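Run log // design_07
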């Protein structure tokens, strides 16, 4: 079957889409342009709000237009955002930076929900939907490898050149995912589906309101994603205070290597149950982060980077649980609804973290982010007790 090639293409897509060299130092570039951590993280907030506003219409577009075309649109917007960031760094133009944040959010909105739905429907057509979590984990393993390769490129570029040069390098790499998306095959299970956008939206909202398990799970996910995204984006600024800029990227290589290992082993742990995996993983991540931030020295970035040894297992279980609660017609739209509210929460967290960093210290902002992870662990533990597998 021709659609089998999607399995390889998903892995290649995540490899190159994740290979964004500017990733770890984006907050540093934004701070250099704006002169403020609050404003720098505000760009991420703008991007997140932009994504949240676009989530519902882009989810509907995905259900109507098809997964392949939606992924192509996302890749094109991603390239445009990278170009705007590079130009803003070159000309120190805040307006270009803001526009880039908006475009970046739209790109993320097109991909949000669509990529997971695309994978699930591919496996469904191959009559292997029960092994969706395996494809998800394998594909995300390549994503972690891509992040590691991007960090390696960033380490080399920042050792010899500036962060602005790094931004231009990211533009070049962002061209590759477009060509990969052009090779995808649209699942027949989705092609020609006769339904309206409003039906999709209403159906997804009803599922959210009526399915208590889905509602609680997605709420915990919203909080988890908001905190983890803010921490991921801000840690580059924190690490840059403890070690040289090029070494920050070395720490990121360690982080993505741990992530690749975690995604690789995730399918072998499924027999323990997804809720059990989530509880153990979130507790493990909190312990590692707490140890690192208490030390607060040159070893901190490298210790904290080991947190990703639990990221792959948690992410795989998280996605598998959500997909099981959705119908084929709701899958991308419902994923967008979850991302919508999660994105709005993340934007608030971005601004609060930036303000705390400007008023007090970067270290305290990081500590507060880590402490809030306790709510995530408690939430998953409650669901484990409530819905035993």
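design_07 sequence
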């Amino acid at each position: 079957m021709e659609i089998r090639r999607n399995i390889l293409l998903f892995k290649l897509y995540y490899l190159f889409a994740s290979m964004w060299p500017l990733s770890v130092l984006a907050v540093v570039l934004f701070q250099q342009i704006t002169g403020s951590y609050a404003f720098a993280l505000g760009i991420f907030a703008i991007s997140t709000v932009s994504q949240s506003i676009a989530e519902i219409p882009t989810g509907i577009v995905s259900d109507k237009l098809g997964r392949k075309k939606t992924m192509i649109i996302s890749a094109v917007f991603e390239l445009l955002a990278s170009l705007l960031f590079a130009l803003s760094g070159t000309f120190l133009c805040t307006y270009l930076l803001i526009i880039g944040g908006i475009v970046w959010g739209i790109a993320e909105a097109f991909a949000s929900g669509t990529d997971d739905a695309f994978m699930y429907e591919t496996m469904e057509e191959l009559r292997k939907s029960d092994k969706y979590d395996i494809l998800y984990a394998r594909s995300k393993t390549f994503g972690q490898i891509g992040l590691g390769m991007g960090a390696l490129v960033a380490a080399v570029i920042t050792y010899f050149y500036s962060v602005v040069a790094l931004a231009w390098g990211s533009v070049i790499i962002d061209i590759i995912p477009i060509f990969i998306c052009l090779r995808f095959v649209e699942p027949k299970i989705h092609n020609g589906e006769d339904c309206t956008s409003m039906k999709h939206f209403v159906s997804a909202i009803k599922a959210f309101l009526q399915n208590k398990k889905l509602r609680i799970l997605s709420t915990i996910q919203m909080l988890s994603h908001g905190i983890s995204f803010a921490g991921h984006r801000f840690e580059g600024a924190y690490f840059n205070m403890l070690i040289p800029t090029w070494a920050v990227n070395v720490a990121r290589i360690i982080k993505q290597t741990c992530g690749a290992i975690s995604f690789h082993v995730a399918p072998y742990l499924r027999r323990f149950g997804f809720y059990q995996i989530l509880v153990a993983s979130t507790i493990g991540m909190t312990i590692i982060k707490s140890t690192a931030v208490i030390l607060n020295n040159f070893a901190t970035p490298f210790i904290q980077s080991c947190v990703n040894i639990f990221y792959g297992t948690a992410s795989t279980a998280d996605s598998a649980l959500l997909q099981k609660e959705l119908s084929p017609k709701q899958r991308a739209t419902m994923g967008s609804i979850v991302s919508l509210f999660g994105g709005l929460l993340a934007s608030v967290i971005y601004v609060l973290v930036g303000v705390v960093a400007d008023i007090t210290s970067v270290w305290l902002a990081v500590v507060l982010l880590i402490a809030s992870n306790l709510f995530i662990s408690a939430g998953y533990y409650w669901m484990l007790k409530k819905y035993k597998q």
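The radius of gyration is 20 Å.
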